[in-house]
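Go through this chain for my students:
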Amino acid sequence: KIITACLVVGVHEKRKLTPEIAALDKVTGGAISALLKSGDMDGKSGSTTLIHNPAGVNAKRILLIGCGEIKKCTAKQFRKIAMSSAKAIKALPVNEVVSALASTEVEDFELSSRVRSEIEAYGITSYSFDQLKSKKSSDKKKQPKSLSFHSQNRSETNQITRAIEQGAAISSGTALTRDLSNLPGNICTPSYLANQ
């Protein structure tokens, strides 16, 4: 039912699929499991690969992100996985993305924290400082205009909504801090900082 230019999902080592990804694999006619069996994707943490025009779904691409061993993913590892996902998406010519990566089981790291980690990762990879350039960077045009998250029920939707708000606020704060640190001293004066 998801219509998107890119659907992001996590897969594990040893060809292990979670029930949600197994259901997606079935809909695509086994495209995900076939890729894992071929060795093109080993599921190691942070690895990425694309399936173009998969059958059975309204997604132009499925971006597979390796999540390591099943049920052994830690918070630190998931943050690295989220960063790998964000970097891979930045390299794609897509305007919108739907991520189901947060459905990955992570020890002591709830759904909202996983979504927030993804938002922060996208914020970091999309950052560019061009305030002092006469010719602005074209990288911003490559960034997806829409990033959505897959949820199973209303409870998850509520958690995701709060996490998006928190992640966006953290990303904005991080971007402002990086902007200030990149400004030269003759612009970023104490009075300039006081007004920020």
